[in-house]
């Protein structure tokens, strides 16, 4: 009898845990494509391992980072990488200020320094867009040392125990370059795929609670078709972007579905043949 009661208690506790996790994920905005990915990433974050999110544009990597921030109730500082990113953009810069009638030089802390000192999340978006020579300054931050000597002030900064690093990359896109192996090896890497099936429907229904079932069904069919053509190599990855599909739903609540798909998805593509293919696919689902 005792074992039966204990099993029932465990079952109820597991159910409560699942409901609690689903609520937290929903509040943060990200819905996991499988039952393991979300919790596996949380384990990596809890262990203070630098996390690398790999996936196509619009797969929800930033939403995922925001959901982690929400789950741990931990503020997030963002760095958007580009070829113009330099050490000052990461660490901060010196500036001249007036205090009590005197001219002084003051150091304004950047996102890396702030996150390290305050125990916040540092989110580095599109890290493979940065110039390779800029990023080695983060090596000691990302490995077991979790420290940094600020070259602008000489200050030695040891990371707060709650400090966490999450990075995201879009592999194979124009303007990106392969990550340096020394940098990549400091991360635990997770592939973030596009959502599909019931997970995608949950996102649509959550973001657009007033949308008709017909509109959601139509967009589900179009989204699945676009993903299929991407997998077949007939469309670029960005054609299946969940972000763009959600933009299309937002427009389609006010204008025709065809025009919404054209503006939110097709017109973003460079190739005219791909744009035409998308609109042909839409014609099979929208009369």
TrEMBL record:
Superkingdom of origin organism: Bacteria
Classification via Pfam families: AAA_5
GO molecular function, one term: ATP hydrolysis activity
Name of the protein in question: AAA+ ATPase domain-containing protein
Domain AAA+ ATPase per the UniProt entry, residue ranges: 47-198
UniProt source species: Sporosarcina ureilytica
Similarity comment: Belongs to the CbbQ/NirQ/NorQ/GpvN family.
SMART domains xref list: AAA
């Amino acid at each position: 009898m005792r074992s039966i009661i204990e099993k029932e208690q465990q079952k109820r506790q597991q159910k409560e845990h699942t409901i609690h996790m689903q609520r937290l994920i929903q509040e943060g905005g990200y819905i996991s494509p499988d039952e393991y990915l979300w919790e596996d990433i949380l384990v990596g974050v809890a262990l203070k391992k630098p996390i690398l999110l790999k996936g196509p544009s619009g797969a929800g990597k930033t939403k995922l980072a925001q959901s982690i921030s929400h789950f741990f109730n931990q503020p997030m500082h963002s760095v958007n990488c580009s070829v113009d990113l330099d050490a000052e953009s990461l660490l901060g810069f010196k500036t001249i200020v007036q205090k009590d009638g005197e001219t002084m030089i003051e150091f304004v802390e950047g996102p890396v320094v702030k996150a390290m000192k305050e125990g916040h999340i540092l989110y580095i978006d599109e890290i493979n867009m940065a110039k390779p020579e800029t990023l080695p300054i983060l090596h000691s931050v990302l490995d077991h040392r979790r420290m940094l000597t600020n070259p602008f002030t000489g200050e030695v900064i040891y990371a707060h125990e709650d400090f966490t690093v999450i990075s995201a990359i879009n592999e194979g896109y124009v303007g990106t370059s392969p990550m340096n192996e020394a940098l990549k090896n400091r991360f635990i890497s997770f592939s973030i795929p596009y959502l599909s099936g019931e997970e995608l429907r949950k996102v649509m229904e959550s973001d657009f609670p007033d949308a008709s079932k017909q509109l959601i069904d139509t967009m589900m069919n179009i989204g699945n078709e676009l993903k299929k053509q991407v997998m077949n190599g007939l469309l670029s990855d960005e054609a299946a972007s969940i972000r763009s599909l959600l933009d299309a739903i937002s427009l389609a609540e006010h204008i025709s579905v065809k025009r919404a798909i054209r503006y939110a998805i097709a017109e973003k593509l460079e190739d005219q043949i791909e744009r035409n293919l998308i609109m042909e696919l839409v014609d099979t689902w929208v009369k």
